[in-house]
Amino acid sequence: MRRGCEEILNGVYLIGGPNVTQADDAAVYLIDFAGELVLIDAGAGGSSSQLVRNMEMLGLDPKALSSVILTHCHIDHIGSAAFFRQKYGAKIVIHELDAKALETGDSVRTAANWYGTTFPPTKIDRKLTGAQETLTFGSEELHCLHTPGHTPGSIALYLDREGKRVLFGQDIHGPFYKAFGSDISAWKKSMQTLLALEADILCEGHFGIYQPKNKVRDYIERYLDEYE
After folding, report:
1. Residue 57 is part of which domain span?
2. How far is the C-alpha of 194 from the C-alpha of 167, rounded, in Å?
3. N or C terminus of the chain: which is more exposed, having fewer CB within 10 Å?
4. What's the CATH number where 188 sits?
């Protein structure tokens, strides 16, 4: 296993991020649903081959990747999505309110301009709508919650497995900028939604993995206090 890859819970892995692949990647999580693989976020784009190798080092077949679910439209989370779609036929999933940024290659809304790069216009296969959608993989459910704040179409996901609730909350800390379409009042409501989940494990986008339940709550509440 490549240094930095981590099995968080049975079949739930951290396979990308600053300490695993490249410094500009946000965290990339992989879920194994009895052989069907789902990626949550896809790094900044420069580590596609490393992400593939990390899957293989875990004994997983990248060709089994069915979906890349993007938590929002920023380049450090979406960069390799088109690669996985083209190479393995994985479907790209994002909330409809952040989809246009990818479809048009908007360098401001994708924050590509922050990174001194561009993002090519990319086709979206499935647009999530409304406050919640549940995706089914085999016998399990992956719940997608609309959590606007950081961007209009930000989502968080959760999975219940082996008696644990795993929350994938990538950029729930912000930052909040007008150019991103950020909305702090909407974000505060989103955070209350996440607190109500009482997750056992938080898989975060930039600062690591938090467990048990009290550390998840503390993490979210710390940011709520900061923006009071």
Report:
1. 6-226
2. 8
3. C
4. 3.60.15.10
Within-domain flag for 1: no
What are the structure tokens assigned to 176, written together?
A: 């909040």
Q: What is the 3-state secondary structure (H, E, C) of 28-55?
A: EEEEEECCEEEEECCCCCCCHHHHHHHH
Helix (H) or strand (E) holding 197: helix 184-197
| Mean pLDDT along residues 141-159 | 98
Task: Select from 36, 97, 46, 100 the least CA-distant residue to 68.
Answer: 36
Exposure of 56 in the CB half-sphere (CA atoms within 13 A): 7
31, 159 Cβ separation under 8 angstroms = yes
Is the pLDDT at 1 greater than 80, yes or no?
no
The mean pLDDT of 39-47, rounded to a whole number, is 98
Overall number of domains in the chain: 1
Residue 183 domain flag: yes
pLDDT tens across 190-227, in order? 999 999 999 999 999 999 999 999 999 999 999 999 99
Residue 129 · residue 99 · CB < 8 Å: no
Of 148, 140, 145, nearest to 158 by C-alpha is 145
At residue 3 the predicted structure's pLDDT band, cuts being 50, 70 and 90, is low
Measured CA to CA, the distance from residue 150 to residue 128 in angstroms comes to 17
What is the mean predicted confidence (pLDDT) over 27-39? 98
